[in-house]
Each structure stands twice: as C-alpha cells, then as structure tokens.
C-alpha cells in the first residue's frame, strides 16, 4: 500500500491518482457491456451475471432508460450506477422543462462526467465506481455513443466496451468495425466479441442480453431481443463459425 492511495486528492510522485485507478480496476472485474453504432441504430449488449436464480429481476440487468432518446449501459457498483442514472434522468427532464427540447447528448454526458470529476477533487469522498455507455439519437447528428469512466473523462465512439475484458473487446472493434454495418453484421460482430472476450464455446441467451436502439415512426425506440430470437442468432453464428473458421 502506498501512502499516496489514501486520498483521492493526492497525486503520487508519478502523477497518478491511485483511488481512481482502484475504481477502474473494480470495474474491470464486473460483467462486460458494449455498444456498436450502425447506420440503422445502436446495438447494445451486456453480460448477464445474476448471482441467484431466485432473484426477481424485471427488465434488463444493466440497461437503463434516461430519456426518450437516450439509454445507457453501466458496469461497476450498482448503487453508484443508480445514483448517477437518477441524476442523468433529472438533468434530462430539467433541460426539457426549461428549453422545451430534448437534452443534447453531450450536454447530458458532460453533466454526469462533471459530477464524477468533482469526486476526485475534494477530500472525504471516494470516486464513483462505475463506467457508463450512453447511446441515443439526435436529429442533427444522428446516432451517438459516449463512454465515461470514474475519473470524469468521456468521449464519443463508434463502438466501445466497458467492464471485464474491455481492452480485448475494443481491440476487436478497431479491426472489425466498419461504417456499413447492418443489424445482421453488427449482431455477428457482437457475438464474436462475446465469444472471444468471455472465452466461451457455448453462446446462449443465458449469458448475454442484446437490445436494438432504432427509429420507429421517426422516434428512437429500444427493443430487447427475446431469448428465442437471440438463441437462433447464437446457433446461426456457431454454424457460420464452423463453416468459415478462417474468419474467426
């Protein structure tokens, strides 16, 4: 243990904030989540890690609705995530009430990032132990995808992952993501990422949840892919992988 790691506000001689690094390391131990943009929308995927089959969970395990045009995936401490999600929802509604228009995504993400960053400046507080991916649609900019981490850093991405094995997943995205992805190709890429990142030979709906954010009658809508359809996609991917092992 270093004498520089007891406060979030103390830099080490190397210029590091150890408490931030510890928070990010905690996030690297939890289930993975990622988003992939396509011309048709955003594909959102998260790993299922339910502790008990007795848990009564309604809806998604890691996917939250922020506003009509914004959703987010979280990875990290659930209690921290709930606090920030509630703050994001409040900010979105306050902006809509004040300006009679949906909150711009970067404005929303920056607001949450500012809160995270403030917890690295004042003593007696610990950083939020959660990373978040925000996905949404804006009429002037189209589909948008942002990621923020415990330090308050954020950025826009075409495809990005958080949680365990995020570096492996992002490496695959750098080589395999293309501008012309459709839903089928994006789903195939997502299943490839899940299989390689989780190092599993048995893809199944029990391990992942998949959602599509797309325009329906001109409005962004999130559609969770059911277990049956996801199971069919997993089986189709396995067959294609056996027939074309060189593409793996």
TrEMBL record:
Keywords: Cytoplasm, Nucleus, Proteasome
InterPro entries: Ntn_hydrolases_N, Proteasome_alpha, Proteasome_alpha-type, Proteasome_asu_N, Proteasome_sua/b
PROSITE patterns per the UniProt record, alphabetical: PROTEASOME_ALPHA_1, PROTEASOME_ALPHA_2
Record bears the keyword Cell inner membrane: no
Domain Proteasome alpha-type subunits: 4-26
Subcellular location field: Cytoplasm; Nucleus
UniProt GO cellular component terms: cytoplasm; nucleus; proteasome core complex, alpha-subunit complex
GO biological process assignments: ubiquitin-dependent protein catabolic process
Chief location category: cytoplasm
Similarity comment: family membership: Belongs to the peptidase T1A family.
PANTHER family for this protein: PROTEASOME SUBUNIT ALPHA/BETA
Subunit structure: The 26S proteasome consists of a 20S proteasome core and two 19S regulatory subunits.
Protein name (record): Proteasome subunit alpha type
